[in-house]
Specification:
The complex is a heterodimer of chains A (about 110) and B (about 110). Chain A has about 110 residues and is mostly beta strands. Chain A has strands at about 5, 10-15, 20, 25, 30-40, 45-50, 55-60, 60-65, 75, 85-95, 100, 105-110. Chain A is built from no helices and 12 strands. The termini of chain B are far apart. The chains are: A mainly beta (about 110), B mainly beta (about 110).
């Protein structure tokens, strides 16, 4: 079945550091890939998405590229801020099961 | 426009009881999905409703059920509660079914079973 694996957290970085959160997937059909973010005390919200191979999703300085050859969708940001501290979830849906499958979530802590 | 609302926000029940949770989607959204979030299992898909029809269901026992009304509001019901049902239950609404379009999440209902 479809699945998503993302790096365990917490990930602790200093402000202005480079961020990578790894996400790999297994899927049948043609998956669409997503990153959702949950800020402290707030609900989940979509950060970015990509719907086909080689697409790059971007938002708020975050980027992720849909790599079919490596079945990956790693999240990156060049310079993180304290306000980026949150839990980040990688997810996929596909035309084989039509439901969002979630990674375990990665807690990101940015220290000033 | 108003976001997704869920009621109640917190609930304490005892084993064997049943519970009903409510979700009001964003106006114009016809898809409502329900998720269970726990520290151990993470986010798990329960079911999705679109235009009053259950479109998809996750791997949960039949004690978990739901419905959607003509105004797109949705309810989920859990019967014969077990301790393991303690979780944050999230509702999300979207324009399209199947998870392909952006899902807008409510704040969740925190259910504690004692």
């Amino acid at each position: 079945g479809n699945s998503v694996t993302q790096m365990e957290g917490p990930v602790t970085l200093s402000e202005e550091a480079f961020l990578t959160i790894n996400c790999t997937y297994t899927a049948t059909g043609y998956p669409s890939l997503f990153w959702y973010v949950q800020y402290p005390g707030e609900g989940l919200q979509l950060l970015l998405k990509a719907t086909k191979a080689d697409d790059k999703g971007s938002n708020k300085g975050f980027e992720a590229t849909y790599r079919k050859e490596t079945t990956s969708f790693h999240l990156e940001k060049g310079s993180v801020q304290v306000s980026d501290s949150a839990v980040y979830f990688c997810a996929l849906t596909s035309d084989s099961n039509y439901q969002l499958i979630w990674g375990a979530g990665t807690k990101l802590i940015i220290k000033p | 426009k108003a976001g997704v609302t869920q009621t109640p926000r917190y609930l304490i029940k005892t084993r064997g009881q049943q519970v009903t949770l409510s979700c009001s989607p964003i106006s114009g959204h016809r898809s409502v999905s329900w998720y269970q979030q726990t520290p151990g299992q993470g986010l798990q898909f329960l079911f999705e409703y679109f235009s009053e029809t259950q479109r998809n269901k996750g791997n949960f026992p039949g004690r978990f059920s739901g419905r959607q009304f003509s105004n797109s509001r949705s309810e989920m019901n859990v019967s014969t509660l077990e301790l393991g049902d303690s979780a944050l239950y999230l509702c999300a609404s979207s324009l399209q079914a199947g998870g392909f379009s952006e899902q807008y999440f409510g704040p969740g209902t925190r259910l504690t079973v004692t």
